[in-house]
Please model this.
Amino acid sequence: MSSSTLTAPLQPRLRLRLSHLVYFPCAYGGLPYPVGCGKSGLGPRVFVSRKRRQLVCVCLCPASAALPNCSVQQSMEISTHQEPFIYVNDKRYEITRDCDPEMSLNDFLRDTLNLKGTKVMCREAGCGCCTVCAVYKHPATGEIESKPVNSASLADGFGSQCGYCSPGFVMSAYSQLRDNPKATKLEVEHFFDGNICRCTGYRPILDSMKSFACDAGKAGGCLEDLERGCCRSQVGKVPTSGVAAIARGWKGQKFYNPGTLKELLTLLGRLRNDNYRLVFGNTSSGVFKEDAIADHYVNIRNVPELYKIEETEASLEIGSNLTLHDLLVLFARVANDNKQAGRAYLGQFSRHLQQVANQAVRRNGCWAGNLMLKLAHPEFPSDLFVLMAASGAIVKVADSIDGGAAVQEYTMTDFLRQDMRGRVVTSALLPLSGGVGQRFGSFKITPRALNAHAYLNAAFNVSVDSANGYTVTDRPRIVYGGVCDKFNHAVKTENYLQNKSLIDQETVNGAIKVLESELNPAEEATWSSPQHRRSLASNLLYKFILGVASAALPAADSSGAQVFVRRVQSAEQDFEQEPSELPSAPLGRACPKPEARGQTAGEAQYVNDAPSRSNELFGAFVLAQEAPAKLKGFGTEEAEQVPGYDRLITAKDLEGRYDNNYVSALIPPQFAQTEEILVTTEVRYAGQPLAIVLAKSQRAADRAAALVTVDLEQTGEPITSVAEAVAKASVVMEPPVETVGSEDVAKELDSQPCRIEGQIVVNEQAHFFMESLTASVTPCEEGLLISVPHQWADALVMTLRRVLRRPANELRVVTPRIGGGFGGKLIMSDLIACATCVAADIAQQPVRMYLTLASNMQLAMKRPGMLLRYKGAVNAEGKLRAADWEINNEVGYTVNMQTSSSTPWTWGYRCPNYSFRIRHMRTDKPESTFVRGPGPAVSSLANLLLMDHLAFEAGMDPIEFKFNNLYKDGDGDNFQRMWSELLQLADIEARRKEIEEFNKANTFRKRGLDMTAVSYQIGYDRGRPSQVYLTVQGSDGSVTLTHSGAEMGQGLGVKCAQAVAAKLNIDLTLIKLKPTDSHVTPNNDVTGGSSTSEWNCQAAVNAAEQINQRLETLRAANPQDSWPALVGKAVSAGICLAAMGVFTADNAGRKAGRYCSTGVGAVEAEVDVLTGLYEIRRVDITMDVGRSINPGVDIGQIEGAFVMGMGYYLMERTVYDADSGRNLTDSTWEYKVPQAADTPRDFRVHILKSTSNPAAAMSTKAIGEPPICLAPLCVTAIKRAVEAYREARGKPRRHLTFDMPLTPERYCKPRI
Model:
């Protein structure tokens, strides 16, 4: 094997490709910006879809009520015509006056215009997949700027895996590069603070996009001037409607579009006592969804008087329609242009605003709307309120009673007491007169780096005399958010600090004592604990004081005032490639996926992107809101009023006709427990489907389902956690104890000189795939055509055969692609597919269902929660001798999925004697299921913490202890080699010394580093075939390839294509991948366990070999013929050019698995012990992947798995209501997965060179799941930092234990 080692990032030259752009009238100076268009309700949502090399031009008159959503772009421009209409590809579409004001832009573009490039997921502005680009004409200045529409392609940089999120990333980059074409690499990274990718780990996306940065240092992306198709001539002044309604909704809702402040106040006078809603960006509807429902909607975006900006010596006046982004830019300019002391605080104000929401929300939401949220929801931790209150801002309010003749002025605290009916915020005054002693600071402590609401936020404003011991000269302002609905100002602490010195320790201690006495944090299930927020409030005050008095303090202490400043991510990918004579680089080469370009351009079609049929119905579940309970009945009176409502299907409609049981064919019949499609009587968990609403659109179905009333009688208290299940002995199954080595492990434990025991509680994890659960079913002459993203098409056929009582040959399951799976699109997709099939069969019409994020999270199976108890022992030489585990595994309401798989307990370390017992615990929740790395993800954490505990008890360095207990290379793995190589590659010893010096120099910031190894067993013993069907077209030699797996971003398709190209000796571009089809590759195996790619590759090779054998004689007779000429002659000679390749896997006599996928990693973390915030500074990973079929794909899998593991171990948390059992973390507001800002700042991945794996098909190793097992290093690296702080503070030496996920609340407590 020749070695071609690449150490630079996989960073291709990118081309911004043609897409669609939307033009709207807006508040933002005519410049383009990203818009999330998936939320329901009014407000700007911009974008349309794209076809390759086709610009869709949309011209819109914004007098209309509600508008489209899109993903790949379109040009939408405003007409001067007074009636609402749009142009799409120069074709005019009227917007009817009775259009629904609650329709989102996403619904309009996808459903009305059938433009599916823009995706839909959360409808909360929390994931970014519906981001579009908008150019608005400014209502006040009349300025407009429109440019050609382009779309960035991530394809060549391996930045698109499942691809569902890719158009949103493209649009975020495009729109902001238009706004800031000279963006730096750091600024480009900030473009994506509202975008989620669950597959890639973000690194390849960031690298690809940073090629457009002005400081990229080399040629990167290029822009194509694609002006054609834009209807720029249609752009004119935004029409308004005065006080007349311009649209009416299905329940009589009216939409108004005033054009002056006078008209607005006239309207407010009329509507004063009605249920009305002022609409600007409507960004709040993603969080407070009920607030979006009103009888009257008043668009204030086109009121020019509300865009005022006036700067004087004493104050800065800001109009209420300025967006958060407008403020961010304005405050930075004012602070930088005039260095006077009274203006400097605006710089911190601006920096803080960068942490509020995300780019799309900041550029669409106005600051006054944020304050109104605080007024309506006093518990809301509004950053705007905290900052403005601390600055001493004054809010101006106009009242409709006097037509705004007299504007009232209020302090921020007084504003919260106002009745705002018939009134509107017009502006605010921010003081600019602070003296040289003014100090302003603010903090926001969040569950993740960006796009998250605060555990606690705070702002401080004091004036001090630094020459007089930093004495506080005036009454300070100390403001907090997130404490409770009644507490904002720390009045007692403000009074206490006046005229006192901030460098006097007694003063500081007294201030903290007073503060803690006046804080009474509220107890809320989804918030951090009151104790945490009280401690955090004190720490933030202390942190601020450190900053104010930093010049008078030792440098080690003053560094505690610093906050994490995000650095540009750097990365390295180190691998070797196989030599190839073919330019398309088949086996062993880093080839981008053929479908990646279509994904990034929004052209790839997912199940829910298929055009709707004229007679198609759409389904939505009615879900139980509490459990356990008995179902008594339904009420549909209000649901029936929804336009498009068709019917309600309940369990009674299934009786006698269908088997109301979707239990999977995965489950052995002797163990299978009934899993009802629709509940008959007994409700087992909150979120369980009770009925199906059918309607003529998905939006109507969702709306009607929410209006169905359900009569439930709760029958008991729900068990909602594994710890509670253990406490109540809720055991449903206890398999025999498994033992390795000595039969008496307890004796081995007791015989060793060093013994430990402990306990770990691990929370569950949601798949959180970007494409929600969905299915589309069409009755046809052959039976039913079922299009569904599913990881095992044949298992679904077997389940449907039983449910529908029809033969399998009448059921055709097609999976075009999956927008993220991770094990979640097996049993859960069975439920959706069964429900949709039953509905289609009853209605005898096509039926489609696409779950909302909330419904998905409510009914979704998840990775099980576990309570683990362990014992371990080492001998005098520090060698691990024995371990014992008791695993309490949460199964949910049924044990079905846990009977189909044990919990693999793998080791990277040699332990000659160990035992583990599993107890399956019942809870009143959805059943647990497979999530990426099921079993090993938690066992790797448990084993690492066990080793960490043993090293502590033995008094040994943790890294040395683990190295001494590694498997030897002669045992069949490369642990010793990988460990030694990574020590050198990652410069571990030098960095540990640097960390030691850093920790000595910083009192409140500490760093830690740790290493570990992982061994992940890959099982081959599944018994069903992997199949690939190849056909060669004799006319041109092109090849179609249909594999039996499910492509969900892991590169299965491209690897199969590479295998075929290599075997047939043809160019990769001749091969076209086709959707998985149960009638083409029947009786297939599940896509899971990471090994499906290699199995299908082997099947592809087998199919290609069949074709080669048939061509052998002909090729020998025509050695000079090209491939097209050869296959053309083959057809004439009657040779069959279609072949089915089959590979059936087995473990070759091995008990646990065919082989182990192994790796070694190192993680360095830094912790701010005053706030609990952390930064993963650097990650180094070496993985043994055997002979990589595609190292570019494999590295993407390594990075993606690791970052998903970071979410599992550090931030992803589910919370259930103790009374109803309902999942309270069912939105992007509460359930936080990692985003780009949370990823390692330095991310280095090495693929072990010169290695192979003869035990596996294709001599490769599975890689999709094993790297998640290295992510627990983030936990122990943070732990090292906390230990360093405790040691420096003289705390007692003891072993620290934490439950998972390791949120700041759990490791940053007073006890550390």
Residues 1092-1117 form the longest helix (26 residues).
